[in-house]
Amino acid sequence: MSNTADLIDLTDTRIFENRAHYEVFSYLRENSPIFWNEPRRHQGFWAVTRYDDVYACYVNHQGLTSTVGPILGGSYGSANTDTAANKMLVASDLPRHRVLRKLVRITTSAPYVDRARTETRNLLAAALDKVEREGGGSVSEDLSLCLPMGALMAIFGISSSRARELIAMTRSMIGIEDPFYGGSLNGNELRLSSIHADMLGFFDDELEYRRDNPSDDFITYLLNAKVDGYTLTDEEILFNCMNLAVGGNETSSYTASTGVFLFSEHKSAYNTLLERPELMDDAVNEILRWASTNCYVLRKCTRDFELNGTTIKRGDLVTLWNVSANRDQEVFRDPDAFDILRTPNRHLAYGHGVHRCVGAPLAAMELDLFFRQLVDRKLRLEVDGDVRWLRSNFINGPAILNVSVCR
Ligand code: HEM
């Protein structure tokens, strides 16, 4: 690459849409591993790109706070004053984080996971029957969305049409710069606020309903929950419902779509899985690493510290790039290759440390179910037409992916 680091702007989401980010991160890992992204569309921030440095930041809970919120430019407020700070799990620090985590973790307990498995299996079976009958279809629209739909129906005890409504909101939020979701590169603040308000309104309706109609769902659980004598305010309940919806809807579905894309591109890997379905766990882990759907997480520095020779100053924003760490050639042999036999595979797709994805067991179940159904049916899906990748530097995967059934 002939450009110098000065020309790189990681907030230009078109780099990710065009898949140029792998080359950019390879350059940064080599030449400027802790890279200062000049203020352009947002305030300036550090981008940490090597595996060991990303890992070190993940476990530096004292020096790096999460209360700035999860997304550059602020998803739930401005980058300095996040309204969800210490109320929403992902935007909270210890010791408050521990209390919230204890509550949210209920969604990965056996009753919830079993229910999610049943809902997802039924939805997927119907969607795959249709794809088989019609000789193809849309992975991004019809197949992958079964995963968050099943999870939402199980967690919140809502109907499939309510789950679809919610997914439309999280999709527009994550695709806020993507033309496919009506987004644009600039001037999204108002639209983002309005999506947030709609989402809070959605959960507020559910909350009011559950007050009079308690059930075995997450909202009823939060309404009654006491941890260390503490009950949640309505605002905290709404924020944490949003956290689950945004955390779960976009990640597992884009990861599943990326997996379908990968197996279409790497037919020998799919043949191996057909012959040896016991490799499913390894295959899913490799899809997680390769996809790194949640590209980065955001932190803010609470006190000056040295990171691999660079001084990070109190108040600086710091981004940890999973998508780059998971391609670090110092840790992963032939990192750009898709290798379902890769071992060890200590990817950081779910993050690390106290904030490591609380939904990971649910996501693992969903992805296992998804690819197992393809394998059980011996279904070969081949990419049909152009793949359009999401215009986002936060969550990435195919926004449009159509397939035909290969007999
Ligand atoms: C392939 C699927 C998924 C990926 C790649 C993924 C990725 C991540 C990552 C990287 C984090 C760390 C955030 C941080 O350190 O700031 C995280 C946290 C989180 N994820 Fe996931 N996630 C996935 C699926 C899910 C699912 C299915 C749910 C719930 C239904 C979920 C809910 C959450 C929540 C609530 C947090 C915050 C945890 C905390 O702050 O303690 N995620 N996820």
CATH superfamily name?
Cytochrome P450
Sequence of secondary-structure elements: HHEEHEHHEHHHHHHHHEEEEHHEEEE
Hetero groups bound? protoporphyrin IX containing FE
**What is the name of the CATH architecture?**
Orthogonal Bundle
Number of beta strands: 12
Q: What structural class should be given to the helix and strand makeup?
A: alpha+beta
Major beta sheet, strand line-up: 1-2-8-5-3
Total helices: the number is: 15
Principal-axis shape: globular
Summed up, the domain count is 1
What Rg is obtained from the alpha carbons, in whole angstroms?
21 Å
Distance between the termini: 42 Å
CATH topology title: Cytochrome p450
pLDDT < 50 runs, ≥5 residues: 75-79
Q: Give the DSSP E fraction (strand runs of 2 or more residues).
A: 5-15%
Percentage of residues in helical conformation: 40-55%
Average pLDDT over all residues: 94
- Main β-sheet: number of strands, strand sense, barrel status? 5 strands, mixed
CATH class descriptor:
Mainly Alpha
Task: Characterize the structure shown.
With 407 residues, the chain is of the alpha+beta class. It is globular and about 60 Å long. Strands 1-2-8-5-3 form a five-stranded mixed β-sheet. A three-stranded antiparallel β-sheet has the order 4-12-9. It has a two-stranded antiparallel sheet with strand order 6-7. It has a single domain, classed as Cytochrome P450 (Cytochrome p450, Orthogonal Bundle), CATH 1.10.630. The termini are far apart. The chain contains 15 helices and twelve strands. Helix 7 packs across helix 8, helix 8 crosses helix 11 and helix 9 packs across helix 11. A hairpin with a 2-residue loop joins strand 6 and strand 7. About 1% of the residues have low confidence. Helix content is 47%, strand content 11%. Protoporphyrin IX containing FE binds next to helix 4, helix 11 and helix 15.
